[in-house]
Design brief:
2 domains, ten-stranded mixed β-sheet
Length: 247
């Protein structure tokens, strides 16, 4: 058996998330159906770096699978892309050793969140950026972001439905920048909890609205309760941008 690592992009608009769900279209189910065709209908399990929710996009999702086929990596990409639907594309393929795992070998991830700042809605970006034309104090948002960097218990910044007990994560970097009519927020960390990035974005927006003082972020972290953080930002502005490994 050989282990194949793929980097893929997908438009999350047409999916009920990444993970397989009964009677729903997901990224994993589409990918595994293609692999089944290539393996004469034998089921091939795909492992990803993590799940993404419905309407969340990926620029650099990483997955792996084991195969008995002897196709060279250079031909895997062409073969997969010829069978995958138009809203999924394989960007890179390589053979890796069996110790590699798309999820458990992750060192860090980068997520990006896009906010459209145009006064009127852009119909062509409505699935790919959160339209928010109102006043935002970006300097206050940048100040608040500094309190989030480092190792913290992020219970206040994850969904109340989160099942994982260990909610300590490390954020290495948060960048907030505006390019013409788009506000871009970058988050790099060793891992993220369920809805964590979207709640961080929603809270920073409330800081920008001057509903929350930047220094209050410390208090929100300390309270370890979802009720103190801001609203969850819409899913369609979020992108899993890059997954980093040891190599």
């Amino acid at each position: 058996m050989r282990r194949i690592k793929c980097t893929i992009s997908y438009d999350g608009s047409g999916f009920s998330g990444y993970q397989v769900q009964p009677n729903k279209r997901t990224v994993q189910s589409e990918f595994e159906q293609v692999l089944a065709k290539m393996h004469n209908r034998n089921d091939i399990k795909v492992h990803a770096s993590g799940r993404t929710d419905a309407n969340v996009h990926a620029y650099g999702q990483v997955l792996h699978f084991d195969t008995s086929l002897t196709i060279p990596p250079s031909r895997w990409m062409k073969a997969l892309n010829s069978l995958l639907p138009d809203d999924i594309v394989v960007k890179h393929v390589q053979e890796v050793d069996e110790e590699f795992h798309a999820r458990f070998s992750v060192v860090s991830k980068e997520y990006r969140y896009k906010i459209s700042r145009q006064s009127e809605r852009d119909v062509f970006s409505r699935h790919f950026a959160y339209h928010y034309p109102y006043e935002l104090n970006k300097e206050r948002m940048k100040e608040a972001a500094q309190y989030l960097i480092g190792t913290h218990d992020f219970t206040s910044f994850c969904s109340s439905k989160t099942e994982i007990e260990d909610r300590v994560r490390t954020i290495y970097k948060i960048e907030i920048s505006q390019y013409e009519n788009e506000l871009l927020m970058k988050f790099v960390g060793n891992g993220f909890l369920y809805n964590m990035v979207r709640i961080l974005v929603g809270t920073l927006i409330e800081v920008g609205q001057e509903k929350i003082f930047p220094a209050q972020i410390k208090e929100i972290l300390a309270k370890k309760s979802r009720i103190y953080a801001g609203k969850t930002a819409p899913a369609h502005g979020l992108y899993l941008w890059k997954v980093n490994y040891d190599n």
